[in-house]
Structure formats: C-alpha cells, structure tokens
Amino acid sequence: MKKDDGIFRPLPLRREEIYQLIRDNGTARVSDLSDKLGVTTMTIRRDLETLERDGLVERTHGGAVAVNRTNREPLFTQKSVINRLQKDLIARKASSLIEDYDTIFLNSGTTTLRIFRNITAKHVKIVTNNAYFPMDDIPDSLEVISTGGLFRKESFTLIGETALHSISQVFASKAFIGLDGFDVHYGMTTPVQPEAHVNRMMIEHTRGEVIVVADSSKIGKVSNFFVAPVTSAQKLLTDSGITDEQVADLEQMGIEVIRCE
Fold it and tell me: What's the per-residue H, E or C state across the chain?
C-alpha cells in the first residue's frame, strides 16, 4: 500500500503515538517510525520537528530520543497532548464520582480540566487554582470558585499566600488531585514547590475522599517536591498501563486502584 501523508491517523493522534513510542523505548529511528505508522519519512521528520519544538523529544541524526521530564516542568500546552486518551478515560470516571451538591477541590493540570468539562452533577461548587477554568464555558449547574493568587503562565496555575488562604477557608467533600509523580516510597510529588503547597492544603482540607487522577506514566515516578504520602489518598484513578505489581503495592497500603478503560 502506498504511504500517504497522514491518511491512516489523525495528525494529533499520530504525533502522540510517535511521542509514546520514543518515550517507551528511549529512542526511535525515522525509518522505523515511517514503517510502523505507514507515513512517509518526510512526514515523520515534520512531526519530530514539532515534538522537539514542544520540548517533548530531541532530534538526532536519523531519529529522536526521549526527554526526561519528571523533574523538568512541562508547559500546560505540552502536557495537554501527552496521554490524551488515557486522561479522557480517567476524567470520565472521575466526573461520575461527583454528586449533586458536592463541594470539590480540583487542582491545576490537564486531567483536572478534563474532569471539569465532564461533570454532569448539578449544583456543584468547584474550588480550584486552575486558571484555565474561568476562561472555559461554565454551565449554570456549576459554581467555580477561583482561589486567586500569583499566576504561573507555565502551568496556568494560581499559587502563593492568597491561594493558600482561600483553600484554608474551605472543607471540601472530595478532592481530585493531579500529580507528576505517585510512588509508594516517595509519595505524591510535583516539580514546582508552590504548587506542592497548594496541593497539600487541598488534601488537608478535604472531609471526604482524596482521589488522585494520574495516568500510568506517573506511577512509580518521583518529582522534585513532596506533596503528601500516597496514603493520604483513598482512590487512584489511572489507566490500564499500571502493572499488577504496582496495583498490589498500593492496595496493600489501603488505596483503591481503579483502572479506567
């Protein structure tokens, strides 16, 4: 079959698949990616240029290598294209756990933004430091309470004393926390210290369940700044990429693991 530019996969999905292949294997050659995805080498090179410009890979002679971003903060726009399908599955499950008249914390991140967009419950109050929410289309059935604070353009996040004070005045019925690292030994972690403080305050001011929403690439990973022990969460919503061993370790610590498929 003749290769045709992008005929087999929508463009964003193809680039996401290229990124996943490079991340999982550490490296990939242009010729191998071309054969696997059924597009021309010229198309692959253009995709790699875009991924490199987004800071997701580094091009080499004849291919590309993965960029280790566990301790380097990806931009909000970069994170939005990573593991999109997994995040959508997690978001749909998370939104189904939200009940009428809940008051919930949603922290910053692309997964929590997806949760927000999937909420069907009525009369829900959402307290968030995610600066993207107020710019989104807010249904009449939802009330969004922004924490205020110092705006970080890299992550579209509100941080600092104003944000912390706002959170300290709330006792939420549930919290949905997105993270960069979730490890049984090192706990919940994130690459930005002020965001770690905000996440910790949300966890401490939740009366009901703390629910971590993290795709499987975050499980077993450790970032720079500690948020809380993994046992601070009652549930982990993740995707089918989590290993049985990881599930067993977390369940042994009393955390319910839900694979979203």
Answer: CCCCCCCCCCHHHHHHHHHHHHHHHCEEEHHHHHHHHCCCHHHHHHHHHHHHHCCCEEEECCEEEECCCCCCCCCHHHHCCCCHHHHHHHHHHHHHCCCCCCEEEECCCHHHHHHHHHCCCCCEEEEECECCHHHCCCCCCEEEEECCCEEECCCCEEECHHHHHHHHCCCEEEEEEECCEEECCCEEEECCHHHHHHHHHHHHCEEEEEEEECCHHHECCCCCEEEECHHHCCEEEECCCCCHHHHHHHHHCCCEEEECC
Q: Are residues 63 and 83 in the same domain?
A: no
Same domain for 25 and 153? Answer: no
Evaluate whether residue 6 is within a structural domain.
no
**pLDDT tens, position by position, 141-175:** 999 999 999 998 877 899 999 999 999 999 999 99
